[in-house]
């Protein structure tokens, strides 16, 4: 091989390869490859126009925020950050302020969505404020500090200015000196990030931009889609969209731009379905970017979080989307719970990081909910309903079953092992899972527990959604005839009845009785249980003879299976007393009441304590009713319809008001000890005491106790519950008999009107209120 000291070179395109031998040394600075346009961007066409679409409609609400921004603009020298989750109108507010700034100041707009666009835009700002081409070129080539050049020119600006840095969702580039304050102008940043060192370093004022209030949201929808739409329908659509500005804008855009069809607001509302994002995106204009499409606007934030190393944020949001839109106690997301259950795609030790990422991107909010009845405050996380629906629709089918199963398991843990405050907040999510056919089986026990807790507390209105959902779940699974399903149907009938819908309970209980009859050999006590509940329903409707027949049937079954001293057998007697005195059979009711009281010392069974507490009240009520029937002056006197034997028995009792008053006091004391002073069952004992006090001659106590009864029943049952209406009617009657001419007529009229509307003209409560109305008007 010959030696050749000359360098050998071969050129390939714009590159060169040098080979050298011996002592020759070559140094060369060379750029390889084709020029990269992104590496030295030419910059925006203008920084004097807003790089966003014009507002489609006038801004609604935001008066306080807009006032603060205008004041800041006048004062100058401040940095303001508008933050909030995607589509809430941050850029719209910035565009409004941009338009407001002219002609008193120079308005400058920079797209800060990427570092390259931010850099190019800010250098264009420097050029606008007087930087020479050479200065700008030096900054572009790295021969001069670019941020320093920009802010030197902004500080030296002869005119005051407004600088908008739009879509700074990744504030990290701003920390490199691009965000500063200046006495010559005001900086307004829009970002999805609620907190960042860039905001702190610039001394920025932070403003949250959230969804619109209800009225303004509906008005925005009307502005965008004017026409003959019903205001109520417009409000319903706005509420369905969670008053989210982008969603309202898209819906309004669709309704106003239809060419081939003409949908009403009601039709649009019906077609939203479970995946509203798909329909809403049809309202975007052809040139709309990802930020102006609901299906993508939130995904941009999640993509950014994943880019920052937080893919767990998406997994956390998918888990939240499995539940309802109500606040979620953070205890559901505790690492210990997650570890016990196992959530697909989400490691327990990363849940905290994922949640922090969502908070930083304004996709979720963290706040504390006051505890009920003096309980501790509960920290919760919440997200917008449309966001959750959009995320839920995007869960891969392969992960859906496992993810929802984990969500159900977490709710089960919270209900079966959590404190009362946590359980209360978990209930909406339990209902959401119970109403989902894919997850209902996982939460049945938890739902029954919540239903039974509310039943025991006398909060039947709160128990009703769970009782209803349990029966509906059984129907979906075609298991309505099974033992457990029949028990749930009986519980539903009872709950409907106790909630005040006497007529609505009847068909449910009749259907349950048919199913229980089919199961008579397998589970005979279900027949008795249904008969008792249906009898109570009939009695409240004035059908006492039918009620008594059902009670006899129930008594025979329970006596045969459980024995005469079982608490459930005694319950039949307790219910029978009520039906007899409502029929005017006062002697019979006293006989049965005495029979019940004789059983009390020997009662056994799970509910023996409960029947022991209730028995004295039903006995005291029977005594009061019997005494009223013998007192011509009593306003509630109903002539007895008893047989001669029963009348003789009644005569032998030698009832007097002192004895009746003593028994009424004992019954109230027992209820307060067992249920507490403000339980609806205690209200029944207080009501009996009030009417007894009137018969005893103590009108002040009667009126005072009636008022307290009204308050308790209204708080627990509602102002239009039949039992609340009845007490209001009795209070009006007592006031009228005492000569009250102001409160009594109005109260009586209100009670009568409610009873007439809810119960009909012939119901005994309506007739009772009619008596009060007549007394108050005379």
Structural class determined from secondary elements: alpha/beta
Number of helices: 34
The average pLDDT value, as a whole number, equals 87
Estimate what percentage of residues fall within beta strands. Answer: 5-15%
Find the count of extended strands (DSSP E, 2+ residues).
10
| Shape by Cα distribution | elongated
Helical proportion, percent range: 55-70%
Rg, please?
Answer: 37 Å
Question: Can you offer a commentary on this structure?
Answer:
There is one protein chain. The protein starts with 7 loop residues before the first strand and ends with a helix. It is an alpha/beta fold. The protein has 34 helices and 10 strands. A 5-stranded parallel sheet has the order 4-5-6-3-7, sandwiched between helices. The protein has a 3-stranded antiparallel sheet with strand order 8-10-9, with helices on one face. The chain has a two-stranded antiparallel ribbon with strand order 1-2. The protein is elongated and about 120 Å long. Helix 20 packs antiparallel against helix 21 (483-498), helix 21 (483-498) runs antiparallel to helix 22 and helix 25 packs antiparallel against helix 26 (586-599). The model is unreliable at 1-40 (pLDDT under 50).
Please describe the topology of this protein.
Blueprint: E1 8-12, E2 15-19, H1 63-75, E3 79-83, H2 90-101, E4 106-111, H3 115-128, H4 133-140, H5 146-155, E5 161-166, E6 185-191, H6 197-201, E7 205-208, H7 214-224, H8 231-240, H9 245-257, H10 265-271, H11 276-281, H12 294-307, H13 312-321, E8 328-329, H14 335-341, H15 351-360, E9 365-369, E10 378-382, H16 385-393, H17 397-417, H18 420-434, H19 444-456, H20 460-476, H21 483-498, H22 502-518, H23 525-540, H24 544-562, H25 567-582, H26 586-599, H27 608-629, H28 644-652, H29 657-675, H30 680-696, H31 699-717, H32 722-737, H33 743-759, H34 764-777
Parallel strand pairs: 3-6, 3-7, 4-5, 5-6
Antiparallel strand pairs: 1-2, 8-10, 9-10
């Amino acid at each position: 091989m010959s030696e050749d000291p000359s360098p050998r070179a071969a050129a390939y395109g714009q590159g060169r390869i040098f080979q050298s031998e011996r002592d020759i040394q070559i140094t060369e600075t060379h750029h390889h490859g084709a020029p990269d346009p992104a590496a030295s961007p030419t910059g925006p066409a203008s920084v004097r126009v807003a790089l966003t679409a014009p507002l489609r409609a006038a801004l609604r609400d935001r008066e306080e925020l807009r006032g603060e921004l205008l004041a800041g603009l006048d004062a100058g020298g401040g940095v303001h950050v508008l933050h909030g989750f995607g589509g809430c109108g941050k850029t719209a507010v910035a565009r409004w302020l941009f338009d407001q700034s002219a002609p008193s100041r120079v308005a400058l707009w920079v797209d800060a969505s990427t570092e390259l666009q931010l850099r190019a835009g800010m250098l264009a700002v420097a050029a606008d404020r007087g930087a020479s081409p050479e200065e700008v070129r030096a900054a572009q080539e790295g021969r001069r500090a670019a941020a320093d050049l920009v802010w030197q020119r902004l500080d030296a600006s002869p005119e005051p200015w407004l600088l908008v840095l739009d879509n700074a969702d990744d504030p990290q580039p701003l920390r490199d000196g691009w965000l500063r304050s200046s006495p010559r102008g005001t900086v307004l940043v829009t970002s999805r990030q609620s907190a960042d060192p860039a905001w702190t370093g610039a001394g920025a004022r932070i403003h949250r931009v959230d969804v619109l209030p209800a009225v303004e949201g509906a008005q925005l929808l009307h502005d965008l889609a004017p026409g003959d739409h019903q205001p109520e329908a417009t409000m319903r659509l706005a509420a369905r969209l969670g008053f989210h500005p982008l969603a309202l804008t898209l819906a309004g855009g669709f309704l106003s731009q239809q060419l081939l069809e003409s949908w009403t607001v009601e039709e649009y509302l019906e077609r939203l379905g479970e995946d509203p994002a798909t329909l809403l995106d049809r309202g975007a204009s052809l040139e709309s970017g990802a930020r102006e499409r609901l299906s993508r606007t939130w995904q941009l934030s999640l993509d950014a979080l994943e880019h920052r190393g937080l893919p767990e944020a998406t997994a956390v949001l998918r888990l939240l989307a499995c539940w309802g839109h109500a606040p979620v106690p953070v205890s559901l997301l505790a690492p210990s719970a997650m570890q016990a259950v196992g959530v697909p795609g989400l490691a327990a030790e990363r849940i905290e990081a994922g949640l922090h990422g969502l908070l930083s991107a304004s996709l979720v909010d963290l706040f504390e909910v006051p505890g009920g009845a003096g309980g501790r405050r509960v920290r919760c996380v919440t997200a917008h309903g449309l966001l959750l629906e959009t995320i839920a629709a995007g869960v891969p089918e392969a992960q859906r079953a496992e993810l929802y199963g984990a969500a159900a398991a977490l709710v089960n843990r919270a209900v079966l092992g959590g404190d009362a405050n946590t359980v209360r907040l978990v209930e909406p999510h339990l209902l959401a899972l119970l109403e989902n056919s894919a997850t209902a089986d996982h939460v049945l026990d938890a739902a029954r527990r919540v239903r039974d807790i509310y039943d025991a507390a006398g909060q039947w209105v709160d128990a009703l959604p769970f009782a209803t959902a349990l029966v509906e779940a059984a129907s979906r699974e075609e298991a309505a005839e099974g033992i457990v399903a029949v028990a749930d149907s009986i519980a539903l009938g009872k709950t409907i009845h106790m909630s005040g819908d006497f007529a609505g309970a009847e068909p449910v209980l009749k259907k349950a009785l048919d199913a229980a009859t089919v199961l008579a050999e397998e589970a005979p006590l279900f027949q008795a249980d249904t008969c008792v509940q249906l009898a109570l329903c009939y009695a409240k409707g004035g059908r006492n003879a039918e009620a008594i027949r059902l009670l006899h049937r129930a008594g025979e079954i329970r006596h045969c299976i459980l024995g005469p001293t079982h608490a459930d057998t005694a319950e039949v007697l307790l219910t029978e007393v009520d039906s007899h005195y409502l029929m005017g059979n006062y002697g019979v009711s006293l006989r049965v009441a005495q029979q019940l009281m004789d059983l009390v010392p020997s009662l056994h069974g799970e509910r023996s304590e409960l029947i022991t507490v209730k028995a004295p009240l039903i006995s005291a009520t029977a005594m009061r009713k019997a005494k009223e029937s013998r007192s011509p002056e009593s306003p509630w006197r109903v002539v007895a319809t008893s047989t001669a034997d029963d009348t003789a028995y009644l005569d032998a009792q030698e009832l007097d008001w002192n004895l009746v008053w003593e028994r009424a006091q004992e019954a109230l004391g027992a209820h307060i000890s067992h249920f507490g002073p403000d339980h609806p069952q205690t209200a029944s004992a207080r009501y009996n005491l009030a009417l007894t006090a009137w018969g005893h001659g103590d009108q002040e106590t009667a009126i005072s106790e009636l008022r307290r009864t009204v308050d308790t029943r209204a708080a627990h049952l509602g102002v239009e519950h039949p039992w609340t209406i009845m007490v209001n009617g009795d209070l009006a009657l007592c006031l009228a008999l005492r000569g009250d001419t102001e409160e009594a007529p109005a109260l009586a009229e209100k009670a009568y009107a409610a009873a007439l509307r809810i119960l009909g003209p012939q119901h005994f409560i309506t007739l009772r209120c009619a008596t009060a109305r007549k007394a108050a008007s005379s």
